[in-house]
Amino acid sequence: MMAITSANAACSGIYNHQFTTLHGEPFNLCDFQDKPILVVNTASKCGFTPQFESLEGLYKQYKAQGLLVIGFPSNDFKQDPGNNKQIGDFCKLTYSVQFPMMSKSSVTGAEANPFYKELTAKTGTAPQWNFYKYVILPGGKDVTVYESSILPNSDAILGKIKPYLK
Fold this sequence. Notes:
Glutaredoxin, two-stranded antiparallel sheet, about 25% helix
């Protein structure tokens, strides 16, 4: 992952990140500055893994209204040992995941990818486990963190994003 510098001069702050998806495609967060974004660190072998179903449900229900759900697989908590292809196959075959999933990376500590370092700095909270969620409101001024046990379709998360859906 690398920060974008000249390609998106109008892009700044938390959006100034480019990723590669599990399928090797480029993904530029700058393209989503005007949308509410639900970010989640995922793992294929975790007790919270069934949350993929709720995440995909939210994405299908609200994508047309502007919601972006984005997943970041990580083995930081030793529950996703697979490679990008294995993770992608698991997500597609088990949960029919269509929302963007980035390539596997670290989300905690010194090895955390730059985006997660920024999320941690902005909220004061790094993921403590898999399926920690961050809601980034349009413009990136407000970022809220939710622990693993808070379901993606909870009133707390929906209450945060719904006012920004079109």
